[in-house]
Amino acid sequence: MAADAEFAAPGPLGIIAGSGGLPRRVIESCRAAGREVFVLALEGEADRAAVESVPHAWCRIGAAATALDLLRANAVGELVLAGGVRRPSLAALRPDWQAAKILARIGYRALGDDGLLTAVVKELEREGFRVIGADQLLDEAALPEGPLGRVRPDPDAEADIAHGMRLARAIGALDIGQAVVVQQGFVLGVEAIEGTDGLLRRCASLRRDGPGGVLVKVEKPGQEKRADRPVIGPQTVILAAESGLRGIAAEAGATLVLDRDEVVRLADAAGIFVVGVGSG
Amino acid sequence: MAADAEFAAPGPLGIIAGSGGLPRRVIESCRAAGREVFVLALEGEADRAAVESVPHAWCRIGAAATALDLLRANAVGELVLAGGVRRPSLAALRPDWQAAKILARIGYRALGDDGLLTAVVKELEREGFRVIGADQLLDEAALPEGPLGRVRPDPDAEADIAHGMRLARAIGALDIGQAVVVQQGFVLGVEAIEGTDGLLRRCASLRRDGPGGVLVKVEKPGQEKRADRPVIGPQTVILAAESGLRGIAAEAGATLVLDRDEVVRLADAAGIFVVGVGSG
Lengths: 280, 280
Description:
2 copies of one chain form a homodimer. The first copy, chain A, is α/β, with parallel strands linked by helices.
């Protein structure tokens, strides 16, 4: 295929690094594979410690012209978007001419987070970059169907998972968020802009007596897979356990698992389940 | 009508009092009209100060047999449900035989808050009580269409209101909650079990730069109007202003406004709008 022919001599991999643990994982994976990288670290999002040992530059989200210049100056042909990006308000964005042009084309107001990411991927492709998914760079990263560790959901938890899956898909279809927490049939919380970690933290004070709740996380319908796949990692397990949840359920295949061994170790130690649910 | 004939000699009005300011308003309204009341104050929900000056008894939510005995012993024929009730977990509920019988009939797990309230109203009617809405007892309680105070939403805020209305109706249809906060097209938060006050408090730390967000509150589709209508009051305005919102929009007609004069005074002082939106 033509795309594979380009792939043969792509120069360093460009990594547009947002928040969370995913950028570090991609960098480590490239290092292990001997692939050069150039990291464009998004101000206010990327983790300084994760990027400082490799070639990188910091960039505001609104500085699209600078970003494109930096990528080209560093001979980047192939790009991966890794990590979370909170869409800034228009006031905080301070778009440069390039960003303003893009915004004018896609329309700022009509877009949820996901629409914006899809548009960004399209723009990068229009500018001649090849955009790949973080999962293509990571081994064994997708959540398989069934329990990851020793603990399995009981029938009550299964009922909460099924209810949560239905609700999370509806929330995703509205482009609000990817996750809900359900306890005994109740919705303790719905993820919006605060993200999954924020949702888990506030559920600590909302939980009811009796068997704990379940975090359910799904891919938004029509979600741009290369930009914002659902992710669970050690931090998710730690916060879920601290908030008194019984487990985590996420869409098998669609969900990336960061540091699977650590996820399993932490979940087993806390006595909570991590389970991949088929979309069928 | 037959119902009006019964209304002629109903004995004291029974008030099942949950949380928030509504029970106090109903008690004050009855006092002003010279109507006797008997308050069944729900433990963990009702405000002690609001009920202690009138005939009342405290009751667990799970103690349905006790509740029915208390209402009958106090010659209650007509009942109003006022205020919020957080559905307890089954463990905290400790249902007595009557509550267990009701739960067995309606099924515990399948129900959201709204389903449960509808079922409770039906059970009370089955037991021979006449259940009326709090709004039937309060004057000028429904939110009219248009702005309540001096401040009006600008076109940007109107866009957030329209977006919020669409989302809040969808969230309501899922029986998750009644409210969302939208800022510049973004969903800052979705109300679930934490209630509107909790939603507003957490949005304080989630807001973006630039023009503030809007609280949008609607009636759930098919909501039992006598049990859990959307309510806004002085506390809603205070919290909205503290969280940096620009205003509050709620469904005209369906929403109860507690202490309208104080709502208008606080909103005007804070420079935020309170607007009723038609359902058309």
